[in-house]
Amino acid sequence: MTFRSKLFSAGNIRRLIFKQECAMNMLSNLFGKKSGASVLPIVAAARKGDIGKVRQLLESGESVDSKDDAGQNLLIIAVHTGELNLVGLLLEYGADPDSDHGQALHIAATNGDIGMVALLLDNGADIDRQSAFEQQTALHFASYKGHAGVAGYLIEKGANPGLPNYQNDTPLALARKFGNCDCVAILKRFG
Asked: 72, 101 in Cβ contact below 8 A?
């Protein structure tokens, strides 16, 4: 492969586009908003994991699709908090488990939160949805972080262990690369 073909490969072009989008978002956040801009009450409640307040605000008409200043929706914020009941509430109110390229499931898998992974899958999350930039699935994230329980659960639920990411690494290759022996054993058994 020549230097020119490497430079203009699909993976490199995706990375360049992603970096450009990140830079544009940063500039927009720096110059497009006043410092000290107020945070939506529903976003603040979700960040605190305050399920009662979030429920009250949803019942009063606040949108389940509300986002913070960084563009993260309530579901992703809730998954970051690890509050299973809050995530369940948002899903009940119609939050899309596959929004933002399935980021909620990817975060849960990265954190090794099998309960959160199960909840998202039970509510329609696409088990093999690939991330926008790295084209990794939840199984990739669980495998490179060494979360063997989550990796096994994902495979049990039908995750494809043979899907490559943008660098052509499968979950097994990532588990090996990061020395996650338990994940390697599970992935070798099923992949």
From this structure: no
55 closest CA partner among 76, 9, 86, 95: 86
| pTM as predicted | 0.80
Q: What distances in angstroms separate CA 86 from CA 49, 64, 70, 99, 105, one per listed residue?
A: 7, 12, 20, 17, 15
- Asked if 82 and 111 touch (Cβ cutoff 8 Å), the reply is yes
- Angle value at C-alpha 42, between 142 and 114, nearest 5 degrees: 20
Distance CA 148, CA 154 (A): 10
Q: For 21-59, write each residue's pLDDT tens digit.
A: 545 544 444 444 444 456 899 999 999 999 999 999 999
- Any bridge partners for residue 73, and if so which? 67
Residue pair 66/74 in contact (Cβ under 8 Å)? The answer is: yes
Q: How many residues does the chain have?
A: 191
